[in-house]
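Supplementary Note 2. Why include the ligand at all?

Several targets in our set were suspected to adopt different conformations when bound, so apo predictions alone were not considered sufficient. For every target with a known small-molecule partner we therefore ran a joint prediction. The input for calcium ion is given below.
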Amino acid sequence: MKILNKYTNLLRVMLTIVALSACSHTVLAQQQYSLQDLPAQFNSPASFSLDSDNNILFTSPNLHNQTLVEQGVITKAAAPTIGLIDNNNQVSVWYTFKQQDLEPNSGVVTPMGIAKGPDGNIYIADMQLWFGGESRLLRVNVIDGKAIDVDVVAKGFSFPNAVAWRGNDVFISDTVLATEKGISTTSGVYKLRLDELSAENPLQISKYQNKNNHDAHLFEIFESNGSLGFGANGLAVDGQGNLYTGIMEDGTIYKSTFNKDSSKLETTLFNEGLIASDGIQWDSPSNALYITDLFDNAVYRIDMNGQAKLLAKNGNTDGSNNMLDAPGEVIVRGGIAYVTNFDAAFGASTMVNTKPDAPFTISVVPIK
Ligand SMILES: [Ca+2]
Ligand SMILES: [Ca+2]
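The joint prediction is reproduced in token form.
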């Protein structure tokens, strides 16, 4: 009886813990945060997309967990999370990745690029190259603006990074198809059709071998200088349906045009001069592209003739006082540019940011 009591008590304690944690989860889901003071579950805000209600969604793979634990800034790793910035600029948790979402071999999920599909669902690049899993395209199934669950709809990428839709075609940049440090990096952009994406039978991309032997979905291949080992990353589609691809280690942007049947017409150099370009978004009202320079701590507007204008730039900061802190992507809503402070530090001599640090922030920059 004593033993039974012991177990009953233990069970009661466990149930209380479960109830408390369920309660704190509920509170957490409703809690709102300021852009300038995000909780640690947004410790590496990365990529943006607008949702169907003009909210801004952003991924946070939380790649700084280990560094921040070592610094004593946080006590435990924060699960990868998607945040929502509402029309009053209040931030809340939209989706926290769950056990069943993890890639089975690596045990992690690394949400990078995010984009709303023509079906209203949210598509996310899950980068597994650094963790030993198979990289994937995830679909967050959305009902009434809420994230319901996550399906894998394509897999076999190397370093999937940005996601951008053009009609019923989705483009996914693959930042590292092959690389030889200091010599060259081969990267590319995949193009998949909506009707090829299936949870029951995820599209399998075959591994890149060389320029003449690769998956038929590879839309474009880029060669860059090999200085970082990072090629194609940012992607955006303009109002005319042209596709723009940023090549990180070259600091360049390429423009791809299309035939009427959505096949590629040509790809040409559109802009050059950044140190290490990152995310790109196109804004309709100002008819311009917006891009970050992750290494140079800067944000630019680029007009449709390829001319760049600096919008903001900072030195090495921690991100406080709205300052840039290794910006990963910029999106414009209502004349305001929102900038994720990804806060990566690669230790490269050309990189301004030296340390991932608190606070965790999203900067705002008026574009007029
Ligand atoms: Ca920071
Ligand atoms: Ca920093």
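The longest strand covers residues 146-157. Helices lie at 2-30, 65-71. Comparable summaries for the other entries are listed in the accompanying table.
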